Amino acid sequence: MGYQSSSSENPNLESTLKSRFDEDRSTALMSSYAAWLRKHPSALESFEGMMMPAKGKSLVVFLDYDGTLSPIVEDPDQAFISDNMRSALQEVACIFPTAIVTGRRRDKVKEFVQLHNVIYAGSHGMDMLTPVSPLRCNNMHKSGALDEEGDEVVSYQPAKAFLPTIQELLKVLKEKTKTIKGAMIEDNKFCISVHFRRVNIEDVNSLKDMVKSIIEAYSGFRITGGRKVIEIRPRIDWDKGRALQYLIQNLGFNDSNDFLPLYIGDDKTDEDAFKVIKDVGRGYPVIVSSIPKETKASYSLRDTNEVMAFLVNLVNWKKSSSASN
């Protein structure tokens, strides 16, 4: 009876098996992604067809920040936008009303982007500064303010009453999570992010259980998820979808059929905005993803490079359309 060596005793065989496994997995992923693309076609490859209904209408552009304008990075404080992306965004904002809707602090994202012709909606839309007119919403949660340039704006903060408790929660979370290496607490003003991208995989569930246990003592808050992050938000009826509706109203398009909203985002929290666009029945919900995932978006872009290419196409399309009229 012959002796058969195991793969662990034959490094070449082990390497060959691993290579074949990786190839099979890669082929399966590519096949899955190709099938997903048929449902959510590339916004770059579909660009001309997408823009046909937009001729003669006003396009309003909304964008997430992390994973859309800036790549996802290990340290959220290092999520800088590239100079090329900033230039593309600036050109878009010179032509179309443009807003960044993010879970981050509004002032933090503005510091990253450094553009003054963009509306910034931070904390998932719970912290917004918008132009004074037109205003077509009720006055609840609104107040007059001046922005950094001294221009008159309207501040909208529907979760303002929760600020003292949020600050208390921040202190508790920072103290309790010290025991878990790699955990990072981010103060996003009206919400709190607990990042676990740097946490050892065996400690992630312990961190989640710890956060859940802490939040159970605060009935006014809820936990949601994102990409390697636990989000803690006030328990109010507000999300990126509601923020999108507010901004559409604030910009004066609510009673108009001559506008099309375009929203580009990569995160689970962006799905609320995609749903609003679907419910409106017109516009462009675009997911940023290089893997298949459940989404309400109609179109897709693979990564931030494709987002930038799409924004450049948008500018060129508008310039070409204007020149031909």
TrEMBL record:
Keywords of this entry: Hydrolase
Catalytic activity of the protein: alpha,alpha-trehalose 6-phosphate + H2O = alpha,alpha-trehalose + phosphate
Superkingdom of source: Eukaryota
Keyword flag Transport: no
Cofactor dependence: a divalent metal cation
EC number(s) stated in the UniProt entry for this protein: 3.1.3.12
Gene3D superfamilies, alphabetized: HAD superfamily/HAD-like, Trehalose-6-phosphate phosphatase related protein, domain 2
Broad EC category: hydrolase
InterPro entries: HAD-like_sf, HAD-SF_hydro_IIB, HAD_sf, OTSB-like, Trehalose_PPase
Pathway info: Glycan biosynthesis; trehalose biosynthesis
Family of this protein: Belongs to the trehalose phosphatase family.
Role according to the record: Removes the phosphate from trehalose 6-phosphate to produce free trehalose. Trehalose accumulation in plant may improve abiotic stress tolerance.
UniProt name for this protein: Trehalose 6-phosphate phosphatase
